[in-house]
TrEMBL record:
A Gene Ontology term for the protein's cellular component: membrane
Gene3D superfamilies found in the cross-reference section: Tetratricopeptide repeat domain
Record PANTHER family: AXIN INTERACTOR, DORSALIZATION-ASSOCIATED PROTEIN (PTHR28654:SF1)
Superkingdom as given in the UniProt entry: Eukaryota
SMART domains from the UniProt entry: TPR (SM00028)
GO terms, molecular function: phosphatidylinositol binding
Protein's name according to its UniProt entry: UPF0661 TPR repeat-containing protein C16D10.01c
Source organism phylogeny: Eukaryota, Metazoa, Spiralia, Lophotrochozoa, Mollusca
Length: 355
């Protein structure tokens, strides 16, 4: 099975991700209401993490095996970039309490690679399913100590993480293909509205060179979020109170992958729509300018002018941001050389100058 460019994401656990985004949305709303208010700098934010980590360390000195302190310290250490120390915290949490609490296993699945990552993800999913069954059967959601109820989306996303391991680290294993497909199918079964699951299935089909099925799956994936995103973006829907994860349930990087797949299956218009949304978020990303240029180039003669514009912009942003991707720069320059100068605009400029 061919290796795909997926990246495991470090940071918040699957269950906590939605909660974190909700809190982030509230903070952004507060800050945007008054531009004159002091904004936190990156250093100030890091200082807050470091202070919180010191409190966790103090708690662990008092109770070395306190599960909450171990898991909180682990997540803070991840935010501070100390992955080895985070591994130790989560690993100790597993030793102290191996049979309850899925979050530590999901973190470890993100931190490790290959077979070890698979084992952690599988155990985490097993515990997630058990916890969800308990919540449904016994109505324990209100007595979970402030933790959010596990949803089908959480379990589906966990299966997606497992599938990604089979697509990357373990792609050469004899059973990688079947295990990957099983994980994706379980992701869809857990939540049939999860666009990430259908996108992974599209990638799976592309790895098998089944372009038609890949097209079907990526269109299904995009249909689950793109129309609503466009409606909000165009102010057709007032969505001030929506959770950002519901408006755009896929991360920035995941949407880059969406666009790559759409281009590969020749769904160019939708690909450009996705990419333009990414430009709204970050206009200093050369790969987005490149991909729009590439999508236009692939559509032929009528789109050459558009392709030239976006590829030139890609090169400008590449230099401006000191981006490092020699392959991208080389291909951009090759395409621009092939496209040549934009002669259609020169006579207009000369005529205007003469006037």
């Amino acid at each position: 099975m061919g290796k795909k460019n997926f990246k495991k994401k470090l940071g918040a656990s699957l269950v906590e991700r939605k909660k974190n985004l909700q809190e982030a949305r509230k903070e952004l709303a507060k800050s945007s209401s008054a531009k004159t208010k002091m904004q936190y700098s990156a250093d100030q934010i890091l200082d807050k993490y470091e202070l919180a980590q010191k409190f966790c360390q103090r708690a662990l000195e008092m109770e070395p095996d306190n599960i909450r302190a171990l898991e909180t310290a682990g997540s803070l250490l991840l935010e501070l970039g100390d992955t080895e120390a985070a591994k130790q915290c989560f690993g100790r949490a597993v030793e102290v309490n191996p049979d309850t609490g899925h979050s530590k296993y999901m973190y470890l699945g993100q931190l490790f690679e290959g077979a070890e990552a698979i084992q952690f993800f599988q155990k985490g999913i097993e515990l997630m399913v058990k916890e969800r069954e308990a919540q449904s059967a016994q109505e324990l959601a209100a007595a979970c100590g402030g933790e959010e109820k596990i949803s089908g989306r959480d379990i589906s996303t966990a299966y997606c993480s497992l599938a990604e391991i089979y697509m990357t680290d373990c792609c050469d294993e004899p059973n990688a293909e079947s295990e990957c497909e099983t994980a994706i199918n379980k992701a869809i079964e857990a939540d049939g509205e999860n666009p990430e699951a259908y996108q992974l299935k599209a990638s799976f089909y592309l790895s098998k060179e089944n372009k038609q099925e890949a097209l079907s799956m990526i269109k299904k994936s995009a249909s689950l979020w793109l129309p609503h995103y466009q409606a909000v973006d165009q102010d057709k829907i007032t969505d001030e109170e929506s959770d950002p994860v519901e408006v755009v349930p896929l991360s920035y990087d995941a949407r880059v992958t969406t666009a790559k797949i759409l281009i590969e299956v020749e769904e160019f218009e939708t690909a450009v729509t996705v990419l333009e949304g990414l430009l709204d978020e970050n206009e200093d990303d050369p790969q987005i300018w490149y991909m729009i240029g590439w999508a236009n180039y692939l559509q032929g003669e009528d789109y050459k002018s558009n392709a030239r514009f976006y590829l030139k912009k890609c090169k400008e942003v590449y230099v401006k941001t000191k981006y490092e991707d020699e392959g991208l720069l080389k291909h951009t320059e090759e395409l621009l050389a092939e496209l040549g100068p934009d002669w259609t605009r020169t006579p207009v400029a000369v005529s205007e100058a003469a006037v």
